[in-house]
TrEMBL record:
Keywords: FAD, Flavoprotein, Oxidoreductase. PANTHER family: FAD-BINDING DOMAIN-CONTAINING PROTEIN-RELATED (PTHR46720:SF3), HYDROXYLASE, PUTATIVE (AFU_ORTHOLOGUE AFUA_3G01460)-RELATED (PTHR46720). The lineage of its organism: Eukaryota, Fungi, Dikarya, Ascomycota, Pezizomycotina. One of its GO terms (molecular function) is FAD binding. Residues 76-148 form the FAD-binding domain. GO terms for biological process: secondary metabolite biosynthetic process. InterPro entries: FAD-bd (IPR002938), FAD/NAD-bd_sf (IPR036188), FAD_monoxygenase (IPR051104). This is FAD-binding domain-containing protein. Pfam families: FAD_binding_3.
Length: 201
């Protein structure tokens, strides 16, 4: 993962690449990483040989015709998810990098909150209040998920400040870093939105 590459020139988000480019990108990495990319592998088990190569011939790992570079995108934090009777949710509001596996989960949390507050609406005029309550409850958490997902990517890519390639620090961090997401009391989140809605009337 290359977090220092903020500009993406290609129209497509998955573009073909080749062994030489990958090899250049990983220059200066640890000997283990270099070995994965650069090793000539006549002695590898057949299962690790690229399918297009005769297994009796020496080959390079990652030297594959379908090698590709993927662009990972997330959304900048929006100042609001709602205006009037319109609201954004899911990826439209807070698309995230994939490292925490949270894109769909956060979209479901949005939907649960919106459904709950809208079910309390007694009059069409109250819809903006209901959506504002959704915005107040969901936006901080969803945007924090986007932020921590980026940090998670750096951690896994050994580019996290203060952790780097220190496996012990990485282990400590990984043991608990998802707890705030997984252990959120969902009922409290729904009730919080309903309370905000009631207070706004
Ligand atoms: C490869 C991959 C792996 C993923 N793995 C995970 C995972 O493990 N865990 C996880 O939580 N998340 C994962 N995600 C993220 C997850 O898929 C998304 O966060 C989630 O689908 C977002 O849901 P959404 O309803 O907001 O958007 P979408 O699922 O993108 O739905 C939007 C829908 O709107 C439709 N649409 C677009 N424009 C229009 C239009 N003008 N008119 C009508 N319809 C329109 C689209 O066709 C689409 O069906 C993954 C994503 C990818 C790409």
């Amino acid at each position: 993962m290359d977090f220092d590459h903020p500009v993406w020139e290609d129209e497509k988000w998955i573009v073909p690449t080749d062994w030489n480019i990958v090899s250049q990108r990983f220059e200066g990495w640890s000997s283990q990483a270099q070995a994965v990319i650069k090793v000539w592998a006549p002695s590898l088990p057949c299962i690790l040989q690229p399918a297009h190569v005769d297994s009796n011939e020496p080959t390079k790992l990652l030297d594959k015709p379908d090698l590709a570079t993927w662009a990972f995108w997330d959304t900048a934090p929006a100042s609001t998810y709602t205006r009037g009777r319109v609201a954004m949710l899911g990826d439209a509001a807070h698309a995230t990098t994939p490292f925490q596996g949270q894109g769909a989960g956060q979209a479901i949390e949005d939907a649960a909150v919106i459904m709950t507050v809208l079910s309390k609406v007694q009059d069409l005029k109250q819809i903006p209040n209901a959506l504002m309550a959704y915005n107040q409850i969901r936006r901080p958490r969803a945007q924090q998920v986007v932020e921590t997902s980026r940090e998670y990517g750096k951690l896994l890519g050994m580019q996290s400040e203060g952790v780097g390639e220190d496996l012990e620090k990485m282990r400590e961090n990984l043991e608990t870093r998802m707890h705030w997401i997984w252990q959120r009391n969902q009922t409290a989140q729904l009730n919080g939105a309903v309370e905000l809605f009631a207070e706004s009337l």
